[in-house]
Amino acid sequence: MKPLVLIVEDEAALVTMLRYNLEREGFAVCAASDGEEALVQIAERKPDVVLLDWMLPLVSGIEVSTTAPTTMSSSRSAQPS
């Protein structure tokens, strides 16, 4: 079974680009365009990884990250200072 990646992003062009590249690398991909939809999909589908935008409609990505039972990692923490 392929690992499932949930993309939470309200900009369709970014979702398309991320989905294309992740699927080419062998991941299963689902997407949510707002925080409410993300919380539902996290609860129902239990993705292996969540790529989460911070600024989302309805429920912010920050609120999703504190509500959903996930381990958070930021791309900013991986960048050299």
Your description of this structure?
This protein is 38% helix and 17% strand. The mean pLDDT is 87. It has a three-stranded parallel beta sheet with strand order 2-1-3, sandwiched between helices. The protein has three helices and three strands; from the N terminus they run βαβαβα. The N and C termini lie far apart (38 Å). It is globular, with a radius of gyration of 12 Å. The protein has 81 residues and is an alpha/beta fold. The chain has one domain (4-74): Rossmann fold.
How many structural units, i.e. domains?
A: 1
The percent range for strand residues is 15-25%
CATH superfamily: Response regulator
List the uncertain runs.
Answer: none
- What would the CATH topology be? Rossmann fold
Q: How far is it from the N-terminal to the C-terminal residue, by CA?
A: 38 Å
Please state how the strands of the largest beta sheet are arranged side by side.
2-1-3
From the helix content, strand content and strand pairing, which structural class follows? Answer: alpha/beta
CATH class: Alpha Beta
Instruction: Work out the helix count.
Output: 3
* Largest β-sheet summary: 3 strands, parallel
The helix content, as a percent range, equals 25-40%
| Radius of gyration from CA coordinates | 12 Å
CATH architectural arrangement: 3-Layer(aba) Sandwich
Notable traits:
17% strand; three-stranded parallel beta sheet; Rossmann fold; 81 residues; 38% helix; alpha/beta; 3 helices
Give a brief description.
With 81 residues, this protein is α/β, with parallel strands linked by helices. The protein has helices spanning 12-24, 35-45, 61-67, and strands spanning 4-8, 28-32, 49-52.
